[in-house]
Amino acid sequence: MSARAADSLRRLLGLLFQSHPWHGVSPGPDAPAVVTVFIELVSTDTVKYEIDKESGLLKLDRPQRYSSLSPEPYGFVPRTLCDREVAERASGASTPSGLRGDQDPLDACVLTDRPLNHGGVLVRARPIGGLRMLDGNDVDDKIIAVLESDPTYETWQDLGDCPAVLVDRLKHYFLTYKDMPGTGSRRSELLGTYGADEARAVIEAARRDYLARFGDLERLLRDAAAQRPGS
């Protein structure tokens, strides 16, 4: 099948079916400088939503048991995976060895002055840094990005441009939102923070991890189309 015919088939599938937010959406033509983020959770949500990996639908994961609300819209970068290469970047940053990725898409927190009323939407955001975190023994990085063209934050280029109090708020949320009061133990651990250059490198590592696990879906679609009878 010609490239033109394959593109036509891709457009037809896009018209007939809703794309899977993880697998069917591109991270964007300008990634990793500007990335697409699928928003799962907004700051007014009192329950935890996350993507259902099988169906691609947004599901209710659990009610928030404590007074812990996400300070900013939160989701993930499509076609990324926290696996070997992301874990190796964490292990190479003077952190414990023998780490593994959490096997989820790369999380992203999007800073914006404009409230989002609900999740389940795609936004374009510019990475300015990240939090290098562990969930148990799994690497669970959180990319920090600013909403593209947000007039309040559009001049922020690096994590150093972000007020320390806002970074501390993000740290506190991700360190505590899974913990039960009074247990004396902490499930999440913060290994450090990084700036825009490392954030882009982590995104690229997560994209390579995704390709290693799932393959190039655009190429697989072209190959499948080329095998149709009569093509």
Please name the defining characteristics of this protein.
single chain, 231 residues, alpha+beta, Inorganic Pyrophosphatase, five-stranded mixed barrel, two-stranded antiparallel ribbon, 5 helices
Q: How would you concisely characterize the structure shown here?
A:
The protein is an alpha+beta fold.
Shape: globular
CATH superfamily assignment? Inorganic pyrophosphatase
Q: In angstroms, what is the radius of gyration?
A: 18 Å
Unreliable stretches, pLDDT < 50, 5 or more residues? none
Number of helices: 5
Number of folding domains? Answer: 1
CATH architecture term: Alpha-Beta Complex
Strand sequence of the main sheet, in spatial order? 1-4-6-9-7
Provide an overview of this structure.
The chain is an alpha+beta fold. 28% of the residues lie in helices and 26% in strands.
Task: Detail the topology: elements first, then pairings.
Blueprint: H1 3-16, E1 35-41, E2 47-51, E3 58-63, E4 74-76, H2 84-91, E5 100-101, E6 107-111, E7 121-135, E8 138-139, E9 142-147, H3 164-176, E10 188-195, H4 196-214, H5 217-226
Parallel strand pairs: 5-8, 6-9
Antiparallel strand pairs: 1-4, 1-7, 2-3, 4-6, 7-8, 7-9, 7-10
Helix pairs in contact: 1-5, 2-4
